[in-house]
Design goal:
By secondary structure, this protein is α+β, with helices and mostly antiparallel strands. The chain folds into two domains: 296 residues, 3-Layer(aba) Sandwich (Aminopeptidase), CATH 3.40.630; 125 residues, Alpha-Beta Plaits (2-Layer Sandwich). It has eleven helices and 21 strands. A hairpin with a 2-residue loop joins strand 4 and strand 5. The longest helix has 20 residues. It starts with a helix and ends with a strand. It binds zinc ion. Zinc ion binds next to helix 5.
C-alpha cells in the first residue's frame, strides 16, 4: 500500500481539532506523580474509543523491588496502573514499535503564579497551556494522532503498534519498569518480543536523544541541638549546616562540569550536571535554634559513572561537610525517588535511522541530536532490553515551570513523523 508524505501531512492537518481536544481533556485530568488516576482513566477511555483493548499493568513494587533499576518509591502502590494497548494486525507482515509515554506530571507550584489555572488548558497563539501539556501528554496524543491519521487514509500498520501510558516517571521510573517487567515475565497479554523499537515522545523539540545523564534523589536529614536564641551558641543549628552542605555540593557540581571531566557527548552542553536543592524543611520558629533540617536534593552525573559510585562520592562530601560544621550534628542520608544510571543510545540502529528519515521527510530537515541533562524512562528500555530506543517529541516551553505550554504546529510535525515512521518501519496494509 502506497501512502505519500503529502497525504500524511494532510491527514494530520485534518486531525488538529482532535489533537487539541484530546490534549485539553488529558491536561484537565490532573495527574501529579502518585495521584495519576484521572489521567489513567482518561487515556484508558481514549484507547478504548480507538478500538484497542488497553490492559492495566498494576504497579506492584513487591514484584519490582529486587530489579537493579528499581527506584525506592515516594508513594504507595495504591492500585495504580499503567495502560498498555496494542494494535495487532490479523496478518502481520511488518515490524513493530512501542510508543511509551508518562501520564504523571510534576507539582504546579502556586496557582496564583499561573496566567490560567494549570489544569484548565487554554490555546493561545499556537500554544496549548497547562501542567503536563508539554511534559508529556502532548507526545502521547501525537502517537495516537499518527495512528488515527493512517486509519483516516484507509490504512493500518502491518506490524504491532503499542501504546504504553505509564505513571511514576517524574519521581522514580517504576511505571515503565513495571511494564517492561510484565512484558518480560508473561504477566501481560503483550510480550517484549512484540516490539522492535521504542519511542518516547518527551518534549525535546523534535530532537533525537543520544544520551542522558544519570540521576538520583537524596534526602539529607540533619539533627542539631535546639536552644533559646539568647544563648544561641549553646545550640547547634542544622539549617545553617544544611546551607553549608549545599554550598559544598555546588563545588562538586562545578568539578563534574569542568571541561576535562566531561563525558564527550555532553561537551557542548552549557551546564550538563545539575545538583538541585528542591525542598528544605526544618525549624519551628524564628527565636529557637532549630532541631532538624531535611534537604531534598537531585543529583545528576555522567553516563560513565555508576549510580552507586555517584551516591558514595556525594554522601562522603555531605558527611565531611557536616562533621566540619559541628561534631555535635548527626546526619542520615536516604535515597528515595528518582534513581537511574546515565545511558548512551544507539541512533545508528535501523529503527532510529528510520525515525530520523521520517522526521526529515515531514519537515525537510534532519533532526538534531541532543544529550539530555535530565533522565527519562528510555534508560529502562536501554538497560533491560535489546530494543533500540530514543526520545522524540514536540517543542514545549516552561516544563516543570509556570505556564507550561506545547506548540501545536510542532505536535503536528511530530505526529506526522510518527505516522511516516509507521509507514516506513512497520509498513501499512489496507484497513480491515
Ligand atoms: Zn517527561
Amino acid at each position: 500500500m502506497n501512502i505519500q508524505t503529502s497525504d500524511i501531512k494532510a491527514a494530520i492537518d485534518a486531525l488538529e481539532p482532535y489533537m487539541i481536544n484530546t490534549l485539553s481533556g488529558f491536561v484537565a485530568a490532573p495527574s501529579v506523580s502518585g495521584r495519576e488516576e484521572p489521567a489513567a482513566e482518561f487515556i484508558e477511555q481514549e484507547l478504548t474509543a480507538m478500538g484497542l483493548e488497553p490492559e492495566r499493568i498494576l504497579l506492584n513494587n513487591d514484584l519490582l523491588k529486587d530489579l537493579p533499576l528499581y527506584a525506592c518509591p515516594c508513594d504507595p502502590d495504591n492500585g495504580r496502573y499503567n495502560l498498555l494497548a496494542r494494535f495487532v494486525p490479523e496478518n502481520p507482515t511488518g515490524r513493530s514499535v512501542l510508543f511509551n509515554g508518562h501520564i504523571d506530571v510534576v507539582p504546579t507550584g502556586p496557582e496564583s503564579m499561573w496566567t490560567h489555572p494549570p489544569f484548565s488548558p487554554v490555546v493561545r497563539d499556537g500554544w496549548l497551556y497547562g501542567r503536563g501539556s508539554g511534559d508529556m501528554k502532548a507526545g502521547i496524543v501525537c502517537a495516537l494522532a499518527a495512528f488515527k491519521a493512517l486509519e483516516n487514509l484507509g490504512a493500518q500498520p502491518a506490524g504491532i503498534v503499542g501504546f504504553n501510558a505509564v505513571l511514576n516517571e517524574e519521581d522514580g521510573g517504576n511505571g515503565s519498569l513495571a511494564t517492561v517487567h510484565a512484558l518480560q515475565n508473561a504477566l501481560s497479554k503483550a510480550r517484549l518480543t512484540d516490539f522492535d523499537a521504542a519511542i518516547i515522545p518527551e518534549p525535546f523539540a523534535e530532537t533525537l536523544l543520544t544520551a542522558q545523564v544519570g540521576v538520583f534523589w537524596m534526602f539529607v536529614e540533619l539533627t542539631g541541638k535546639p536552644a533559646h536564641v539568647a544563648y544561641m551558641n549553646k545550640g547547634v543549628n542544622p539549617i545553617e549546616a544544611g546551607i553549608a552542605v549545599m554550598a559544598n555540593l555546588k563545588e562538586l557540581e562545578a568539578e563534574w562540569n569542568a571541561p576535562e571531566n566531561r563525558h564527550p557527548l555532553f561537551k557542548d552542553e552549557p551546564h550538563p550536571i545539575n545538583f538541585n536543592l528542591g525542598t528544605i524543611q526544618g525549624g519551628e520558629w524564628n527565636s529557637s535554634v532549630p532541631c532538624t533540617c531535611t534537604l531534598g536534593i537531585r543529583i545528576g552525573f555522567f553516563p560513565d559513572r555508576p549510580v552507586e559510585e555517584a551516591q558514595r562520592i556525594v554522601s562522603e562530601r555531605v558527611r565531611t561537610t557536616v562533621a566540619r560544621a559541628n561534631e555535635a550534628l548527626t546526619v542520615s542520608i536516604r535515597f528515595e525517588g528518582q534513581f537511574g544510571p546515565g545511558v548512551v543510545f544507539d541512533l545508528e540502529a535501523p529503527p532510529m535511522k528510520a525515525l530520523a528519515q521520517s522526521h526529515a521527510k515531514i519537515t525537510g530537515e534532519e533532526p538534531r541530536r541532543i544529550a539530555c541533562t535530565a533522565t527519562t524512562d528510555a534508560r529502562i528500555f536501554r538497560l533491560m532490553s535489546d530494543m533500540p530506543v530514543t526520545c522524540y517529541g514536540p517543542v514545549a516551553k516552561d516544563i516543570h515551570g509556570i505556564d507550561e505550554a506545547v506548540s501545536i504546529e510542532s505536535m503536528k510535525r511530530v505526529a506526522g513523523a510518527m505516522a511516516q515512521f509507521i509507514v516506513d518501519w512497520c509498513g501499512v496494509q489496507p484497513r480491515t
